Amino acid sequence: MEALDGFYHSHDVEEHYSQLKEAVIMMVDDEPIMMELVQAYLEEEGYRNFITLNQSSQALQVLNRERPDVLLLDLNMPGVEGFDILDRIRACRELRHMPVIVLTSSTDPESKLKALALGAADFLAKPVDQSELMLRIRNTLTVKAYHNQLAFYDELTGLPNRKLFLDRLDWAIRRAARGEQQVAVIHIGLNKFKQVNESLGPQVGDMLLKLISKRLLNCVQNDAVLNRLGNEELWRNVSRLGGDEFSILVPQVPHAENIGLLARSVLDALGGVFEIDGHEVCVSASMGIAVYPGDGAESDALIKHAGVAAGHAKQRGGSSYQFYSKEINGLSRERFRLEADLRRALEREEFELYYQPKIQVSTGRLIGMEALLRWHHPRDGMILPHKFIPLAEESDLIVPIGDWVIDQACRQNRQWQSEYGIQDLKIAVNVSAQQLRRHHLSRSIKDVLSASGMLPDHLMVEITESMVIEDTENCVQILYELRDHGVHISLDDFGTGYSSLSYLKRLPIDELKVDRSFLVDFQGDDDSSAIFKAIIALSHSLDLTVVAEGVETEQQLHFLREERCDLIQGHYFSKPLSANDFLKFVGQRRAAV
Ligand code: C2E
Ligand code: MG
Ligand code: MG
């Protein structure tokens, strides 16, 4: 059912058929070679999603779990026969309507009649003829899509109806239970819809519901929402439960408080005026959010609690949302408060850069520093990056903040050079994925360099593995532009992500920073030290400088010296320091060396 959703929303025949190719096709046959052949035929035609099973005894279990769009079922199998499976499919509430095409080598009409009586949708004779196979599959899927449209979609808006919503919610809960994940149900109730219906007539009411469903769909596809929830298929889960009630199912929710962002954009989306037949219509919505498993283990409880929360929101006055859980309500408020404060932090000059020294292991010399952002919150005091950088990244604030960081770091280093004669330090700045993606990073870095008068050779840009993996082409191009300009590139937090060594060669990097986690439980002769040794050897063979992050003890330093690690950054030498303290540190270091 999943893959065929929306089939009848498009009016283009070509599009119809290409949508069918998304269908999940399951085959149960005791001869794997048969299934391979059928799959090869279907793949040739563009179908892509297959489940094959030659143990007929597991068929029901797999069907229940995977819910394919169509089943190709062999009738004659040892153990559990095709007929038995058909029988049990029809007895099962969730599977009853799944179309089954029966594959049979027997030409006898009796078994065909029996299969028909058991509800088989169609037959296919073995050996399978390719064109016949295509036709049967296509017809069966088309009928199924049509049936789905009638049974599972709201006629007026084209959105999934309550039945489909419930089915998906049950499914999402079962999946979440296996993976220990969260599922959110957002209940959306329209305020004053009844008045519109009564005063302007049901036709205007219907139009309004259609426009509302469009706005809901648009809103769910909004960039910021996708960024935070990372679920591009979310629009499929916008449903109309009936009357003036809508619902959104979010099947995977890492941080429940983030659902607040979606709720807020729904409120914004529904907030404006709707123009219908010369009337200007305004509505507002009250929304409630319930999260599995905290707010209920079953779909009924979740739906009920989302409704209860929506009721609370309504009492508070229209156009608002409320989580069922007090705790998440608090977290969500806290998040929005911080985000709102973050929006003003730049203009209020609440940011400061700290600088953590980088030391050359062989000589003990200070060779550079990493600029690390600190936020002096007017009420909460100093906030560390892990608490606000993710917020900044999700809301795009990271771009102006990142610009400020680069600018400030370059100016500061230039000032130390010109006023204190500290000539040879490379300053490193961290950049985020958004800065690389949404921004002409190389252009703005060049501008900053010329404005501050600092040489590109004194700047290092730290990127992380995941940034490269997500957007390799674009990323590689920007990094080459920077390198050609003379800026150095460092790969940060190495070892925490994919650690794919193949792209190390493709990237114009100068330095590898091994993540702090390798040193955390360091005992000197364990797995981490073996990995460390391997990384150092590899980096040197690629002519990269290796930096160990998070060095805290003499023992760690000793090991790293033995292994010829190049640079060290960590509390052993110094924590990140304010600009003034960093200057003092430089003075002490000079006196000591
Ligand atoms: P990072 O780039 O890997 O920075 C190193 C982090 O490790 C810093 O945390 C630093 O204070 C900490 N650290 C260094 N040595 C030690 C040690 O010996 N022991 C322990 N326990 N910690 C050590 P910080 O400053 O909290 O920054 C955390 C992360 O936030 C950074 O990780 C970086 O990814 C990000 N970040 C910081 N400033 C910026 C910025 O201006 N822009 C962006 N996009 N991200 C930033
Ligand atoms: Mg860093
Ligand atoms: Mg790091």
CATH architecture of the largest domain: Alpha-Beta Barrel
Through-space gap between termini: 72 Å
Tally of domains: 3
Bound molecules: ligand C2E, magnesium ion
**Structure annotation, total helices:** 24
Give the biggest sheet: 8 strands, mixed, barrel
What does this structure look like?
With 593 residues, this protein is of the alpha/beta class. The protein folds into three domains: 2-152, Response regulator (Rossmann fold), CATH 3.40.50; 162-324, 2-Layer Sandwich (Alpha-Beta Plaits), CATH 3.30.70.270; 338-592, TIM Barrel (Alpha-Beta Barrel), CATH 3.20.20. 49% of the residues lie in helices and 20% in strands. It is built from 24 helices and 21 strands. The strands form four sheets. The chain has an eight-stranded mixed barrel with strand order 13-14-16-17-18-19-20-21, surrounded by four helices. Strands 2-1-3-4-5 form a five-stranded parallel sheet, with helices on both faces. A hairpin with a 5-residue loop joins β13 (351-360) and β14 (366-377). α8 runs antiparallel to α9 and α17 runs parallel beside α19 (472-485). The longest helix is centred in the N-terminal third of the chain and has 23 residues, at 130-152. The radius of gyration is 31 Å and the shape is globular. Residues 6-11 have low confidence and may be disordered. Residues 492-493, 513, 515, 549 line the site of one magnesium ion.
